[in-house]
Amino acid sequence: MTGERAKEQFTITMEKFIGLACVRLPDDVYARLEEMRAREDSPLQRAIYDSYFENLRKALELGRPCCQDTGLPQFYLKAGTAFPYLDITAAALAEAVRRATLSAPLRPNAVNFFDEKNTGDNTAERVPWINWEIVPGASGMEITLYLAGAGCSLPGRARVFKPSDGYGAVIPFVFDAVSGPGINACPPLVVGIGLGHNAENAALLSKKACLRLLGSRHPHPKGAELERRIMEGLNGLGIGAQGLPGNQAVMAVHIESSGRHTATIACAVNVSCYTHRRGIIRFKEDLSFELPTYRGAAL
Ligand code: SF4
User: Which DSSP string corresponds to 263-288?
Assistant: First the structure.
C-alpha cells in the first residue's frame, strides 16, 4: 500500500476505534463490573450499579460517549521493528484524534500549557501522548488506547522513599492516594502501582499496571500476593461505587515493577474509574486488525 493510502486507512481505523472506546467498555471491565454488581447487598450500592449499567446501555444504544469527560487520548504502542508504517504512525494517530473529536464526539480537553487556550481538537504539544515500546523482529503493532479523564489523572502521584523508610512506606502512600483524591475518580477503581528506582520510571510502570487486563497477576508470587493484600485492604476502607459507603472500592490492583537502586524505593500510583476506557487494537503488516478487548465489535 502506498504511503498516503496507508496513512488514510490507518487514520480512519483509529478514528473509528477511538469512537468505539468512548462508547463501549472493554469486555473484561464490563464483566468485572457485572461480578461486583452481583456481589452487592447494599440497596444504595445496587442503585448506583444499576445507574452505571443503564448509562452504559444507553451509550451503546445511542452511540454516545459513556462519560462526558472523554479524557485526553493516550496511546501505548508495542511496535514491531518490521511494521511497515512506523514513520506515519504518530501523524495518523494525531489526525485520528482530530477527526474523532467531531465524529465520536470527544469533548475538547487539550490546552496548550503556556497559551492557556483550548485547541478545540484534542491535540496539543505532545498530545496525543504516545508511548513507544519496540518489539524486535515483529511485523505488527499493538496499540492500547486509554482515554484519560481528569478525575482519573488527579490522584496520580509518585514518591521516592529511602531504604530506611522500608518497603512498608509504600502501603500508606497507596492508601492515601486512593482514599483521598482517588474518590474523585468515580469508584470502583482500577489501581495501578509502579515500583522502581525513580519517579518517572515508577510513574510509567504505574500507568502500564493500570492498563493491564483485569484478572492478570504480577508474575512474581510476592508481587501477586501484594496485589491481593492491597486490594483486600482498599476494599475494607468502607468506600463503594461513587465514593459512597460500600465495601468494593476497587475493581483491581495491579503492580508493575522494575529493579531499583540500592538506595531508592520509588512508588507511583495511577487510578482509573469505573468507565475504564482502555481498548486494544492489533494491526498486522497489511493494516488488517483485531479487537481483542471488544468481542464481536466491528469498525
Ligand atoms: S472519573 Fe471516570 S466516570 Fe467519573 S467523570 Fe471522570 S472519566 Fe467520567
Answer: T-EEEEEEEE-SS--EEEEEE-TTS-
The tens-digit pLDDT sequence of the chain (299 residues) is: 778 899 999 999 999 999 999 999 999 999 999 999 999 999 999 999 999 999 999 999 999 999 999 999 999 999 999 999 999 999 999 999 999 999 999 999 999 999 999 999 999 999 999 999 999 999 999 999 999 999 888 889 999 999 999 999 999 999 999 988 777 889 999 999 999 999 999 999 999 999 999 999 999 999 999 999 999 999 999 999 999 999 999 999 999 999 999 999 999 999 999 999 999 999 999 999 999 999 999 99
Q: Measure 58 CA to ligand 1 centroid, in angstroms.
A: 16
CB-count burial class (<10 Å; 0-12, 13-18, 19+) for 260:
middle
- Answer yes or no: do 135 and 281 share one domain: yes
Question: Which atom of ligand 1 lies at the shortest distance from residue 67's CA?
Answer: 8
Q: Which three cell numbers stand for residue 213?
A: 487486563
Based on the domain organization, do 156 and 241 belong to the same domain?
yes
* CATH number of the CATH domain containing 185: 3.30.1330
Ligand 1 atom nearest 273 alpha carbon: 2
The total of structural domains in the chain comes to 2
Q: Same domain, yes or no, for 167 and 256?
A: yes
